């Protein structure tokens, strides 16, 4: 008896592997082309904005801009600078970061490592989601009503930092929470198996593993709050003089400096506004670079 053939019949019974492979390659190349096209369309506005800011900002990018304030300088005058605004922005962002980051990271640790499905964890997670959608001007109005009008404190850089803290906490909390969730449970279980307490496991295993992602989230939050204008107008007001004390009196900042100078139709003021925007972008990029270097040096993979 003749045994049946084990070979696959050819013909119209079904498409060949070669044709299937070719069609998949065509679809793959088409999808890759669409992804590259979407990326190019997304980058074009960003490059256009950066190019416009750089071209216009270079007009006043000189040592005077970094060495002098706008005290006793009017809109029609040449010269003047943003020294007072740069100092104010750095102080306000530093205070905001020192307050918001510990609260946010500890909240994220609680939600991931301790809360589980408990009611308190759900309540905290709900309020974090609500705070993410709060408009920036609402944060400024809250600090204005509570800190300035109710408690009677005056305009200050610290009041502006409190408004920025409200905006920064939910962003850092949510990003840190997602990074902590990405840490494999095998690392935690291996640490527990060696008899290491939970708090030491979190401090020396979980956090270092998620450090790069946490730092990235922090810098995204810093970039957001550093460019906020509305809450600062309501809490720090603005001044042309140098104020190195963030707890006493109005203090300048780069966003309010740009807002003030851009509102003057004089060309000298517009040039200062463009340069202020360029300096603000440069500061954000510099802080991101420094944070990346610090996170890379502290990464467990590089030890």
TrEMBL record:
Transmembrane parts of this sequence: 34-54, 90-112, 124-149, 155-172, 202-223, 273-295
Keyword field contains Secreted: no
Domain ABC transmembrane type-1: 86-291
Main location: membrane
Keywords tagged on the record: Cell membrane, Membrane, Phosphate transport, Transmembrane, Transmembrane helix, Transport
Signal peptide as annotated in the record: none
InterPro entries: MetI-like (IPR000515), MetI-like_sf (IPR035906), Phosphate_PstA (IPR005672), Phosphate_transprt_permease (IPR051408)
Gene3D superfamilies (alphabetical): MetI-like
Membrane protein topology class: Multi-pass membrane protein
Annotated localization: Cell membrane
Functional description taken from the UniProt entry: Part of the binding-protein-dependent transport system for phosphate; probably responsible for the translocation of the substrate across the membrane.
Protein family: Belongs to the binding-protein-dependent transport system permease family. CysTW subfamily.
NCBIfam families listed in its UniProt record: 3a0107s02c
Protein name listed in UniProt: Phosphate transport system permease protein PstA
Lineage, broadest ranks: Bacteria, Bacillati, Actinomycetota, Actinomycetes, Streptosporangiales
Gene: pstA
